[in-house]
């Protein structure tokens, strides 16, 4: 068979602590913002309301993240299943609130550190490289409610303490890290990545862009700490990437698409990968009435400590239309017009593997740094039979097409490090807080109320991905 992927390509899967671990108040863990965000289809509407202030109200809402899939207690079983699939790496996050429960403590919670000692040791015992995200949508609730989230510069020192603690604890064993998950998601939804509510600035460009600046400083501090701890560490940024198309050849739509690519796909990565604000930043700030508080030394730090690679999620493309009546792409978190050339998932996310090849070329052309696809996958309603067998050919087809696109991008000359499909085991959805929106190769017997046995069952895609990894991407049949 033709070798389509380089030797050492990092096949694996990805999760986030707040969506799988559960055990939200065990072993000294504090509350994170996600612990205070209700589940259900109206989740985004609830947290986008002017009244939302992170007050927990179990009489009105459910909080599925409190239990998750109990990965906190069952990680050994789950990682053994990942080993059986052949994973070369496992991307997961460290819950900030397990290490510093309120974010402001001077000493870390040793029970939380020991937990990740064991997770990392289990991965390494199975020959699986950990790929750790420092901050994956789970800021300590105290820093959101008392400090106002990332718009407050004081948060930088608290994040630096957290980053230093875990990088020094695990940096000799863990080579691959990322700083902030989907940092650019704040363009559309600053709740998760910046912990901004409407009351604290979610709709205010000034708050949002200042929060980004503070995160860029914090990210560079983490890169500096990582490289000082162990020069072999590779630490990346992480963005959502949505290849953007103009709805038609109207020059106004073409220009709007260029601006969308700059403000959404490139702004955050430009700073973290190139070490400076892009040429279009001043124009963007002016158009939004933004004046950044940039402190002496900030830009020198950002310039000196850029990321080693670009990690990104890719689920869909987006179509930009500013001039004509057109159907919207329903369910697409990123908005945009309906693309008549694409099919959509059960949740309305348009499926575009060619867009992944385009995106890989665009990113590599712009940054000339290794790329790492750390999220990609199909959220779908899986219907197991009486033996809990799931025939998820729709997921296999989705992944096959995207892996084909990856191989074609590598042929184009793109340097691609690895691929970790999202939700390699079923987990609580970020956008809806549901279990019924499933991504995994492994079915978890829990419903949207987190009722069920919690037992794990291998889907058809489990065996298919096992074959893909064993053949290093050569056998996609």
Automatic annotation (TrEMBL):
The active site is at 375 (nucleophile). Keywords: Glycosidase, Hydrolase. Its EC number is 3.2.1.-. It comes from the Bacteria. One of its GO terms (molecular function) is hydrolase activity, acting on glycosyl bonds. InterPro entries: GH (IPR017853), GH_1_N_CS (IPR033132), Glyco_hydro_1 (IPR001360), Glyco_hydro_1_AS (IPR018120). Belongs to the glycosyl hydrolase 1 family. This is Glycoside hydrolase family 1 protein. It comes from Erwinia plantamica. The lineage of its organism: Bacteria, Pseudomonadati, Pseudomonadota, Gammaproteobacteria, Enterobacterales.
